[in-house]
């Protein structure tokens, strides 16, 4: 199932330590958290294509390039290299996810197939399905290339009809805290105070709230940084290499004041 684009950009509120030049944490809603969690569903081959082989840290880029350059004479017959280079990506739950990464085309459209014999005397043919139209039926040895329709189960009963139909992964009535290392937790006033103590912040006047708009450029940077760093938010939104412009929506606030949840 294809993902549904719900916004070109999403907003993210950062708490920045201007003295330490670091992002302590961010506050975000459902849309940004859904985007982060959806990264876990990306096939490695798709990640490499998004970041380009040259930008990959380590050896994955070389591995990808090796498959690209390997001659067909060394590939098992009926094996398509695109299954490795352009893996299928069709998560059933990834609807209504913010479109913050470029669209990656899969090698083939995800589908399911049954035996072309259609049953007949070989009643066991109806027991088998395949996701490859070149597969052979175990019962009659014919090609299994007749398209089958995959039917998803209905949403489970829920006390809130809106939450059952909103898509994505997390509920939208909660504000979430995202740490610099992308640890995600539900936000609370008590946890915010505890985090300031944990970060050993001594100069509260050095803290500023900033709001950034995260678009496709920042989405790719977040993906790349998540594979390389444990200070992802700082690297993407404060690093001069990222070139991200922070947009003030609120004036600098003292940490001693009550911060809005």
Blueprint (SSEs and pairs):
Layout: E1 10-17, E2 22-28, H1 30-38, H2 44-51, H3 60-69, H4 82-85, E3 112-114, E4 129-130, E5 146-148, H5 161-165, E6 176-179, E7 184-186, H6 189-198, E8 207-214, H7 216-226, H8 232-237
In short:
24% of the residues lie in helices and 15% in strands. The protein has helices at residues 30-38, 44-51, 60-69, 82-85, 161-165, 189-198, 216-226, 232-237; strands at 10-17, 22-28, 112-114, 129-130, 146-148, 176-179, 184-186, 207-214.
Q: Into which percentage range does the β-strand content fall?
A: 5-15%
Q: How many DSSP-defined strands? A: 8
Shape verdict: elongated
Q: Provide the low-confidence segments as ranges.
A: 1-5, 156-161, 241-261
Kindly name the structural category.
alpha+beta
Radius of gyration of CA atoms, rounded to a whole number:
24 Å
Tell me the number of helical segments per DSSP (H or I, 4 or more residues long). 8
Q: Give the strand order, joined by hyphens, for the main sheet.
A: 7-6-2-1-8
Oligomer: single chain
SSE string, helix = H, strand = E?
EEHHHHEEEHEEHEHH
Distance between the ends: 35 Å
Quick one: biggest sheet? 5 strands, antiparallel
**What is the average of the pLDDT values?**
76
Give the fraction of residues assigned to helices: 10-25%
